[in-house]
Amino acid sequence: MLTQMYCILQRINKHLTTYTARHTFATTVTLENDVPIETVSQMLGHKCIRTTQDWVQIRLYIWRILEQFIKRTNRE
Fold it and tell me: Which string of DSSP letters, residue by residue, matches 12-23?
């Protein structure tokens, strides 16, 4: 409910779940600003740092795929 109100106030025209908001925050505010992964893990409430590490690895993998796609698209 709170995330939906935020979207309305910020004029975001996409459905935003609490899950998406949490992980977007973790990515854009913390990891991209060199906050230690242990701190991010605690902030997300993960009981095991491995959960956070797995999530970061998946994120990096997807990012690499997107970068490759963009490079290929720009060449054509």
Answer: --S---HHHHHH
The Cβ of residue 57 has, within 10 Å, a number of other Cβ atoms equal to 10
| Cα 52 from Cα 45, distance rounded (Å) | 10
pLDDT level of residue 2 (50, 70, 90 thresholds): low
- H/E run at residue 4: helix 2-9
Query: Do 51 and 43 contact (CB within 8 A), yes or no?
Result: no
Instruction: Say what the pTM is.
Output: 0.54
11: left (phi over 0), alpha (psi -120 to 50) or beta: left
User: In sequence order, what are the residues at sequence separation of 6 or more whose Cβ sits closer than 8 angstroms to the Cβ of residue 71?
Assistant: none
